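Page 47, continued from p. 46.
Same chain as before, 2000 aa.
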Amino acid sequence: MGNSYAGQLRTTRFEEVLHNSIEASLRSNTVVPRPVFSQLYLETEQPLAHDGRTENDDEDDEDGSESNSPSIPYQMKPPPEGCCTTDGFCQAGRDLRLSSLASDPLDVPPGFMLVGVKSPSLPENLLVCAVDRRFLPDERGHNALLGFSGNCMGCGEKGFRYFTEFSNHINLKLSTQPKKQKHLKYHLYRNNQGILVKGAPICWRGHDGRMRQMGTSLSEGHVTSDEQPPNMALTHPSHTHGSYSAVSHTDPIGLQQIADIPHSLTNGSHAVPSVTQPPLNQSGPGRPSATGPHANAGPPKKRHKGWSPESSANSLPETTVKTPPSSSALSTLSVSSVITNGARSETAAPLSSSQGSLTPISPPGLSVTIPDQLLHTCRLQPVIFKGHGPLPQLTGNVSEVLVSSLLQSCYLSSQTLPRVYQHYGPSPIQPLSTEMQILLTVYYLVQLGPDQVPLIEDLEQIFMRSWRESHLSEIRQYQQPQTPATQGRHYGIETPSTLPGLPQHLSLPPQSQQPLTPSQLPWLAQLAASSCGEGVVVLGEHIGSLAQGIHQTFSRLMDGRLENTNYVVIIVTAPGQETQSCVVVTGKHQCRALAESMYSPGEGLKEINHQLSTGVAQELIHFCSSLGQDGDLDSLLDSANVDSNDPPPLSNSQESAEERSLKTTHSPKDSHTQGSKDLPSPKEGASSPKDTCSEYCVEWREVRPIQLAVARKLLSHVCAIADSSTQNLDLGSFDRVSFLILVPPSEVTFQQTVLHLWSSGILGGLDQECVSQREAERYVVKMDQSAQARIDNLIQEAHCNSYTLYILVHDHAHWDINSASCTSSDSSLGLVDQLLNSRQVRDAPNILILHVTSFPFALQTQYTRISPYNEIHWPSAFSNDVDLYHERTRYFGVSELLESTRSGSSLPLMRYDSSFESMASALEERFPKLHSAVIRTTVVIQHYCVALMAASGKIGSSHNLHKHTSVETLEIVQSLLTAAQQCPAHHGHMVLLRIPSLALAAWAHRRLSRVRRQLGLEESFEIILGNPNQALNIGRSFTDQIKTWLKIQDADWVPRTYLELEALPCILILSGAEPLGESLPRSLKYCDLRVISCSYLQRTTLEQELGLAAYLVRAESRPPHNPGPGSDLLESDAEKLSSTDNEEEEGQENGDSPLPSSQQLQSCPDSGALDPFPAQSTTSPNVQKGTMDTIQSPSQSQTQLQPQPLSQSFLYPQPTPHHQTQSYSQAQPVSQLQPQTQIHGQNQPLSQTNSQPHTQTLPQHQSLSQMQTPHPQPQPLPPAQSRRQHSKSTSSGSMSPRASSPHMSCSWARGVSRPPSVLLPRALYDIITASDSSGLPRCTSFLPHMSVAWASSFRPLLSKMMTCTEQSLYYRQWTVPCAYHMDSSNRTEGRSDNFHPRRLLLSGPPQVGKTGAYLHFLGILSRMLIRLMEVDIYDEEDINYSAQADGVQYHPANASWPKPDIMKTMPFDYTLHDPKYDDISSVYSPGYKPSAEGNPVRQEDIYLRRRTSRIKLSKYAAYNTYHHCEQCHQYLGFNPRYQMYESTLHAFTFTHLLLGEEIQLYFIIPKSKEHYFSFSQPGGQLESMRLPLTSDWSPDCIKSPIFTPTTGRHEHGLFNLYHAMDGASHLHILVVKEYEMAVYKKYWPNHIMLVLPTVFNGAGIGAAHFLIKELSYHNLELERSRRLEGGGPAGDVWPFIILADDSCVMWNAVDLDAHNDPMEHAVSLKQVLQHMEACPDLAHYGLCGIRKWGSRGLTGNKQREPFSRGHLHDFLLLNVDRSQNVQYDQNRFTCHDVDFTLRLHSAGLLVCRFNSFSVMKKQIAIGGYRTFIIKTKMTDVPTSVGPSQYVCAPDSKHLFLATPAQLLLEKYLQHTSQKLFPLSTKNYTHPVLSVDCYLNLGPEVTVCFVSSRPHSVNISTTGLLFSGLLLCFADSFVTPGFLKKFSFLKGATLCVISADRSSLRQTVGRLELEEEWRFRLSDEFQTANAKEDRPLFFLTGKHI
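Result:
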């Protein structure tokens, strides 16, 4: 549906589902990935009809559920008298239930299947019946006949013809109309034990939870227009799709084969597949295809469930059970097919083979003598293709004939049926007969054009289609009876359209009716050949043997009778023996092409070198130097008026003049030659200040948004590997990244990667020592012999530094995939295999390999090492024309080049040079022995030389030089010479001339340099020889010029990469067998590929060469509605692979140029620039390219009226040639263009537009860019667009219409916004621009790489709609590596999925920016690892230290432990110093003077904004659930080698007076931790938690149990204390709320949980601490009694517990250095606890704790004191024995620890803080006890309720809140205390008296705490006047006499708090408060809770 790259209309959903699916499977433990592709395709392409159902749904839907009509109750027929009516039994009384019949032997008639029937009255059981399989659907939900035929499996009654009748018989008792679709639910089958079990659900068209499927949801959309190779001798008009929707016209290839990859694709792990896996794509769509021009458009409506074989077919479904992944991946091939692959893999795609088979085995006595002088006489070297039967022995001059076995392998592989068809034994499905193969071969050869070379892929496809067509009905018949036993894969069966290129009057004999007999074959073959005259000759009659036929052929050749014959087909059909055949190729062009393709690329280059070095090519060079009547090239050069005495590289004597008789075509249209005065003189530098160009800017160093996105994608894949349960990568254990980038052995690529690396800035973060670009070179290594040592070094480093993650980036990864065992030791090939696939690299847990390539196909085979989940594909930057990444550039790649060839208007960017081709082919005939590369290179260099002479103006115009070069070459040279003059700074273009042979390139460089020197053009442009083995070398003056442009000061700087040649006018001769990843500058304007080889037709080879022209174009220069980048399959693109779906419909929608075609051709030579973005319309190959009158098909207007294809139907606008356009754009204001825009915007059919006069049409083209804007308001044309219209031109003369704006003068700046033009050889151009039947470019169906072979001929074609991921899965299924491929050994290791778990593959189109992306990835990975090793820790200064500190030192600074006697003398510090409490009421302390300003008021969520420091984790840190290293596995219970730890739930009950009832707690105890507890008997009642004795001590043991209360932090709480404890054994208990029990147990399966009772689900931290403390005391007593029973001392049980926060992350100790200065360093929690537990007098203390860490240490003199008495927080060591009588307040939510410490101190217990230790607290923004949300009862949505609404008057109508009453009270007092205690605000000297509890009254109020208990320790309050009194739940210790001790200010406030109104009144009466305090009725309040929530009440009063 048009916009290729953007995919279907719901691309974003596609990406999302794909991403989620891959992520889900990465994270899940299930074996089979979800079939995401088939689901998506089904969903995305359903055309919904008006009622919301799909158009092709049957109207009578199976369930009545979808219809809106009311259901009519169904009356069942009453059962016959006396029959059984019991559910689960038939009317004969026999049991039908599956549970009963599971093991019974059942008699199933042939053709029937056992099916489970769902009975509404027996939901848990199935009834067994047998149903004729013809009435059941296949797995796709298709092909079920209407009606029913079934047997009862109970009583054996047969022949039920109606399901209604049958349902009565089996007692279904239905309330609705019986329908088989509703009740026949499951297939049944016998498992390995022979038990009948439930199998896959029956797929009734997408019910049972699958998506609905219908015929129109064709996932591929393969348009099977007749596949016509270009230049057909006999073409037939391809039918248009106008009469029916394009969707119907598809090939049923199916994603099922693609999805058929080994199942256990969990990331890197190899899970065992389940016994019956459903096929990966059961929901795959049915794929009908047209069998002829008028096939129907999908499944017929209504009554035809099974489609007739004539209409269309589905692809074969998958088997229900797949081949287990462990079985050999070759299970798809039979033995003979494996053998043929060996033969096939000899060579590449053209019909050619190695020359090794010259003497095949043949019967003795039959031999053929090759005539003498055959090559000399015929001027060709015939090629004999072996066919059927043995070839006779050749004798004589055998070197003059070539023999190839490629055709024979093609015959063999297409006769090797896949196993699925062999499975049925003697089946009617037979391979193509020999006769049919021969006849099809003749048909194929007949339709080849005179210049075309036969391609094996085409012939193979013809065989496949013919076979499928002839066996259509049988294939469908065998589609259905799939049983679980069927092993092996199923192949998609494709219904052919007409065979490609076959003339329709030569249609095939209908093989299905009667086979082709041997006697008919010669006659039919001759009949077929007669249509092409002498092109194909068939020798069939009167030929007794192949030897006789070959002999006859040679005789005819020698006699000249085969002058016009390209192929001789020899057929031998003697009665009683096998038919034999062979093909002799006798066409000169074909023989040469086939002969050259038999060389391997390396051999071909050797042959060229040999021909050059032996002088064979000299005659050709002489011949080309002659210019006929215009003289000799060299003599003309010598006459050029330039003094040059240097000897030419080739001496003149060698270049003698010879008359040149070759006809040239096309004269250049502009013969104004440039005078020499216009050329810049050597003295003109670009350095003068006025000669600067304001437009010049180099942008290749920037990181683009899409590169950031890809880097993040890479990072998320790495994290996914780390997160998966396979433990293949432990990111948490690495603290830094190191890397090595491997590049091919090209010096320029090496330097280019170093340059990118250095300028990316990532080395700053990774390697502080790397300070220069030269030093950056150590991170990049060329894959030559030097690489071995570097990688060995890295492996050693990785072994030593286990905390460093090493990334090996293998760039240009498709370059060397040779197996190390198959390459010679001196060659650098095979190094990648030897180094990257070595065991050391594979097994190192800290080495990760990233392969980066533009052509990943060779790494995607059946034996690949890379998991499909670890592939990252470059995303599309545009989706439905929305710029997803806000790129300033757009990618212009191979597919956009292809689009330009289909545009129909103006010169396409990719074209061939016809005059060059004709000259080259004439010379090829003249010099048959020379390699075509030598001939073509000589001709092209000759053209350049002549064009230089013509353009320089140094040779007189009388010589007619332009006749001796081609128009294209002249344009290139003129543009090169004139560009630099138009810019003040002399910026120009680059011309790339690609010559693969190093020797030819060197010759070309010498030749061009000599001509340049003789013409005096040395300063005009540079000629660079790009040799991969050598550094870049350019002239000094050009280097200086570049330095000026780039503002480089370094005197020694020289350019080392092609990128640095930006804007340098130059010809770059790029040599080397293949490009090695060199990037070219954006000043590249012409890509001359005319001499690349046409022999090696693999996808990678072709796309590599075309990729040289890939380009990033400035985004603003493109119209807004272009298709996304790289939108062809040709570029491993991200989303959709090819251009458009409606090929002919959109054929020339915008392609019609309003100009006459003659004018199109005459547009300026640069017209590639005029039309850089041609219409994206896939013109079918047989539509003439320039045609004007495209007739619009009827469906086109419909297509346009639908909203979806809008973005596709208005493809690129075509700016017309500038001299025309300019006049219009100047003459017509933009506003006049407006009406036209609107008309076109309303999708007016183009046929109307075309009929308008040109004057209107032209502006319309201009305004197309506006047309796509959402609001068509008039807009001025963007400058870039007008810039494109005044494009560069041939010479200064034709520049007159150019706008005279000064900044337009730099042709470089104009060129950056348009991609380069590409010149190709004609043969390649024809192949690349042709489309195959799927609508894709032909080259995509070629073998993807030389090192792989197709797994089977029975493969489908690639589909146009495939995404990159699907394309990868396609190659993974259908290609196998050859023996010399490095992955070929990967299948022998006995694993089911030989994927390497730490290997990633990044693929993206060439030149798109992959290097920048992976470098950025390395940077963010490094930052992430550092970030993983760091945490945000609260780092705040202690608060409330008064200036004057007492100078008393109580303990020496180095004291280890506190002494109780000294501690008792130390004053208790009531003041709070913890900064987290700077927003609460300070506690009154007589000696403390607060600072004047007081503490600021803070917001509620302030703890999120507190000051933190980022600190690197020490090795003793506590971790959350995201950390899992090797050592932790057992501790966490997650090790895959161990079973998940089992836990048991134990109840524990104890009574507590305060709660007044029994409390029942639950312990969840893992089996591994049961030894910490004692039970009544093993597995019995939990009795107590074991405690050690005080006297016990062990160096590896912590005595105190650690309790951590936690809520909401199951992932983020720091409960992994393994490292913090340094391996010491310890008892750690998580205290969780009941509702969170399950989630904590899931994340921490190996931790002990204490589950609080249900009543505490809404409670705060106080309740948790209360229960922990009371439980611990109860347990202590139990342990004492247990010890007593055992005869031990009772008092000796260890009484301490640890209460730790869930955010304590690290611990530090302070030591004194030599100068007695404190030094802080990280220590383990074990060390801290063991030190504290070892304190001699520890039992004297009630509570111990440690300091909270701050980077400033302790303030003032306090830091000298090692111990102090004061408040303790966060990490406490509590003596539960001594503190038995002081409880935590179970109701408290805030400040519970302050309250507890004050009460503990007042009870006379010692509190001690160890200042030598500190705890670091991590900032965790999630969960915790502070995150209570106050919300109303009415709604769950948190609403903003102000503190004043937390309380209300009793009995009033008020908004009740769903928040605990205590929390409301605490919050109310905190926020409104200024109103409640007005006298107390900011009044430290008159605090509020709070009795027996501390409550926070806000930071402005001071609280004085006193305890009413007798003998309690209180501060002296004599002389203090209190400003208020707070009585909270006053108990009996508070008496009127106690209160009378205190004095109050007049007007002081009283606040009494009670649980209910009556106790409130009792308290007032009991304490005689009314004597001194005045109360009013209005002063009584309650918290805003409903009655059932038990509100709290309080009363306020004023002091009298």
